[in-house]
Amino acid sequence: MMEQMVPTHNADRDAVRNSPLFKQQALIGGRWRSAASGGTIAVDDPFTGETIGAVPDLDRQEVQGAIDAAQAAFKDWSRRPAKDRGALLRRWHELIMANREMLARIITLENGKALKEARAEIDYGAAFVEFYADEATRAFGEVIPANAPGRELRATREPVGVCVAITPWNFPNAMLTRKLAPALAAGCTMVAKPASQTPLSALALGLLAQEAGIPDGVLNVVTGKASMIGEIVTSSQTVRKISFTGSTGIGAWLMQASGPTIKRLGLELGGNAPLIIFDDADLDMAIETAMVAKFRNSGQSCIAANRIYVQAGIHDRFVEAFRTRIAAMVLGDGFDEATDIGPLIDTAAVDKVNEHLDEALKAGATLLAGGRGEGRMMPPSLIAGVRQDALLTREETFGPLAAVIRFDSYEEAICLANDTPFGLASYICSSDPRTIARATRDIESGMCGINTGLISNAAAPFGGVKQSGLGREGSHHGLEDYLNIKYLCQAGL
Ligand code: ADP
């Protein structure tokens, strides 16, 4: 099977590399820059394994230069009327949508995901820019009833200052716009550090921001060694907030390293989402929920359903219908319109899914679809009869392996679902209003999909509890995370 996967989309790949949006330099203070050292970091095409480009391996001084540029731009940007900032964000949104197809193709080239998923990511990512273009004008303050005659008490909202966004490779466009749009709307300036595997989507967004007229220094995009950039931005007195999406380990390190400078932190970390399907669930709805919650982005999502708990009465019908749907999915080159599941980001990602699969099978689970992956290709797979102590119940699989665990009672399901240090997303399927009300109350997660796996939306608050993170992105709460409250107390009136 693997031998047949010869790339047949060379022309598509060349078209991306020849596009003006395919920038391979960092953006600092409005200038496109290579590293003074000439050093670069190669970017791979996950499907072919070939190098498709290279971005600058910036040094400390150059990263500091980006922080300085953001600081220099802050005063003017923060004092512009919110309506003007909103207008520039709206223009940026228009340019993103006008370049939707090429931006999607850049994602497919550097991340490997199927084109249809990449297009959906552009729509989702752009929605944040559109949403916050409007939200910019709604950073309202408060008038507080005075505590004495002749006094006026007010609370205003101010942008926190220079911010840093550190983003992962799984949604190279949307994870960035989700941070950039509220930050810029609030009046903050930004240094963005995309994942080394997928920096090209971020650089393309930088180019379009520049074309939209967003002033020099307001948005800077840096590339280079993550640990060095992490050290500089956490220890900087100038950087007032870091917004990070990635692993819990790096999030914990950033929090610790930001301690001495008391920064604000937005952390969107690992998940280990449970999906609970109760006996009274609508079968079609449950299957649809499971397909999206598990296989969106090939399972490489922090809200992917890692553990699928199915009640005994519906178990066999669910597993059979789920197996049929999974077996019909197409594994292949992301550039093929027919592809549902592209390559995973690297071979280590496939090794991890294989490890989870092998361990569960050894402990007695049954393989019903798919099987082990090879290279970067991991077929969509289904195992049932998984034990609650399996490795995959404790670690994020981050791949297209669906694991079904049978349960009997409501209490058992909730107890199993909450048996994790994480609490990002959860999903429940039921048609009983009482079960839904109880389960949404009892489940420990920042978000819960009820009879749906499709929960992400720019207007809704995304974020976790427990070790899944701090803060919320999207919605008006996402804007709050980039604003400080200033209390004003005036006497003698
Ligand atoms: P993943 O497993 O998704 O790659 P990581 O947490 O390793 O998750 O990476 C998420 C983002 O954090 C990436 O942009 C990565 O380059 C960055 N990163 C990794 N290590 C550090 C670090 N020490 N300091 C700052 N950023 C880091």
What does this structure look like?
Helix 2 packs across helix 8, helix 4 packs across helix 5 and helix 5 packs parallel to helix 6. It is globular, with a radius of gyration of 23 Å. The chain has a seven-stranded mixed β-sheet, with helices on both faces. About 40% of the residues lie in helices and about 20% in strands. It contains 16 helices and 22 strands. It is an alpha/beta fold and about 500 residues long. The site of adenosine-5'-diphosphate has 14 residues, from helix 8 and helix 9. The site of adenosine-5'-diphosphate (ADP) has 14 residues, from helix 8 and helix 9.
Question: For the terminal residues, how far apart are their CA atoms?
Answer: 81 Å
Biggest sheet overview: 7 strands, mixed
Range of helix content: 25-40%
* Overall geometric form: globular
Unreliable segments of 5+ consecutive residues = none
Fold blueprint:
Elements: H1 10-17, E1 26-28, E2 31-33, E3 40-44, E4 51-56, H2 60-79, H3 82-98, H4 100-111, H5 115-135, E5 142-144, E6 152-159, E7 162-166, H6 174-186, E8 189-193, H7 200-212, E9 219-221, H8 226-235, E10 239-245, H9 248-257, E11 264-268, E12 273-277, H10 283-295, E13 305-311, H11 312-327, H12 347-362, E14 366-369, E15 381-384, H13 391-394, E16 401-407, H14 410-417, E17 422-423, E18 425-429, H15 433-442, E19 447-450, E20 465-466, E21 469-470, H16 475-480, E22 483-490
Parallel strand pairs: 7-8, 7-10, 8-9, 10-11, 12-13, 12-18, 13-16, 15-16, 18-19
Antiparallel strand pairs: 1-2, 3-4, 5-6, 6-22, 11-21, 14-15, 17-20
Helix pairs in contact: 1-4, 2-8, 3-5, 3-6, 3-7, 4-5, 4-7, 5-6, 10-11
Bound molecules: adenosine-5'-diphosphate (ADP).
